[in-house]
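User: Reviewer 2 asked us to show a designed sequence for the structure in our supplementary figure. I'm pasting the structure tokens here. Could you produce the per-position amino acids so we can include them in the response letter?
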């Protein structure tokens, strides 16, 4: 983080601007909107500056910059078309440890002006740290269209009630739950309809009889890793939860989207490393929900596809704990798509099987014969440790050793890596390329299309297929 975003109260605070042209005018308008007390130094001024001086909003100094003019100032803006003069202002301000902004010269800025979305008292600031101001402006335009105008009046209303709520409801968590109820209530709709008096009366009623928040569990699929693959509902519930119980497979980028003040509990599961037994995880969810918490059980991929989501919900049922299930993009669909592998294709595969590489505790083997059919794609979760066994059993069951295979490591993530080859060298590929979890095995003729359809990340590390595939008639 190159700059620390801060909201600074500038009411009646002294700010110095060097320059009296159109660029300086834009900065001055923003500062006056924040209540700053402006002093502007320039040899010539636009009419707006002159009018501001007449209105008592700014003090104009006709002449050249002198470092003594910096004395007592909080902020300094160098906004002239003279690079040498701007540099002089920057050096003089920096020598005094003052915050200075040099317009259109990001290396000479100790603070910057962001693009602002104003729903006062709600303010949203967007910045590219001076590297891409047009991009920041376009982002602001998109958010302007998304954020309703009633946010400002709503924030003003609840702001008037903060002290009342603090006196009535003790404890930060309890107060936050109350406000969550308010924002889910008809108070918001009243404000949106400009029925502000009715909204205030409704808020008074809610405060007079606050409801005890019941616990709930959200079983949420986080997808294979790319945060842009999260569903909108998943993101909403991640932001609402008091506690997030998550696995190792949930990427750091996704965890950064969790509400900052939420408690985070890792019950990480990796191949060969189950740090928290499933029974303990079940009991944790029960205890948190019975304590009135909103619990987001965040799982990599989809919670109902090798995610034990069903088991965890079954554990909640005897306790009458409310729950929701949010599907996620399962690893098979997400990783294959990002690797350029269509799981089905009318010329190569008319069906697809998702299987786990982990055998059952009793050692029962899967149906290798059904998995070895041609014209079928096989996707194996958690199959790295069993790669040699999978290769052997599929070959024995009749799957050709020339069948194309892909190993997708960290699928959909920036560090995605793909290794392709043939079934008869699957185990060797895993060992040779030192593939590590999380990784997915894709076995089937569709893998050959990956060479043409690859689009995301690094080019695959490929072993040459034995022969070109022939399309089915």
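Assistant: Here is a per-position design you can include in the supplement:
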């Amino acid at each position: 983080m190159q700059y620390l975003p801060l909201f600074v109260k500038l009411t009646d605070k002294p700010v110095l601007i060097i320059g009296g042209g159109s660029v300086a005018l834009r900065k001055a308008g923003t500062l006056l909107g924040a209540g700053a007390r402006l002093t502007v130094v320039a040899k010539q001024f636009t009419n707006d500056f002159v009018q501001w001086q007449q209105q008592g909003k700014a003090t104009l100094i006709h002449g050249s910059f002198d470092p003594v003019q910096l004395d007592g100032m909080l902020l300094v803006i160098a906004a002239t078309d003279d690079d040498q003069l701007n540099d002089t202002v920057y050096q003089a301000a920096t020598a005094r440890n003052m915050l200075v902004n040099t317009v259109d010269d990001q290396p000479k800025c100790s603070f910057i002006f962001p693009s602002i979305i104003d729903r006062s008292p709600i303010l949203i600031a967007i910045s590219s740290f001076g590297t891409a101001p047009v991009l920041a402006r376009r982002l602001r335009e998109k958010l302007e269209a998304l954020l309703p105008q009633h946010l400002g009046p709503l924030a003003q209303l609840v702001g008037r009630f903060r002290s009342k709520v603090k006196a009535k409801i003790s404890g930060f968590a309890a107060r936050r739950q109350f406000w969550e109820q308010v924002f889910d209530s008809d108070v918001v709709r009243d404000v949106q309809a400009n029925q502000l008096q009715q909204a205030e009366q409704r808020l008074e009623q809610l405060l007079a009889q606050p409801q005890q928040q019941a616990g709930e569990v959200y079983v949420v699929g986080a997808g294979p890793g790319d945060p842009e693959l999260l569903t909108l509902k998943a993101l909403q519930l991640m932001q609402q939860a008091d506690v997030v119980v998550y696995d190792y497979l949930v990427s750091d980028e996704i965890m950064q989207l969790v509400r900052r003040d939420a408690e985070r509990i890792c019950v990480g599961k990796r191949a060969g490393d189950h740090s928290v037994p499933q029974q303990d995880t079940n009991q944790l969810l029960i205890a948190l929900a019975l304590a009135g918490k909103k619990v987001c059980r965040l799982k990599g991929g989809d919670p109902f596809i090798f995610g034990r989501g069903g088991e965890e919900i079954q554990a909640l049922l005897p306790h009458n704990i409310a729950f929701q299930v949010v599907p996620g993009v399962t690893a098979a669909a997400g990783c294959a798509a990002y690797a350029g592998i269509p799981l089905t294709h009318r010329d190569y595969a008319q069906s697809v099987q998702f299987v786990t590489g982990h055998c059952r505790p009793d050692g029962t083997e899967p149906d290798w014969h059904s998995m070895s059919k041609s014209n079928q794609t096989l996707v194996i979760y958690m199959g790295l440790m069993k790669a040699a066994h999978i290769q052997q059993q599929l070959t024995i069951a009749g799957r050709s050793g020339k069948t194309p295979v892909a190993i997708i490591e960290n699928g959909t993530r920036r560090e995605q890596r793909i290794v392709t080859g043939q079934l008869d060298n699957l185990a060797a590929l895993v060992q040779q390329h030192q593939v590590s979890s999380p990784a997915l095995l894709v076995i089937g003729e569709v893998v050959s299309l990956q060479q043409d359809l690859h689009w995301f990340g690094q080019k695959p590390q490929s072993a040459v297929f034995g022969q070109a595939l022939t399309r089915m008639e």
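For the response letter, you might also mention the following. DSSP finds 17 helices and 20 strands in the chain. The two ends are 57 Å apart (CA to CA).
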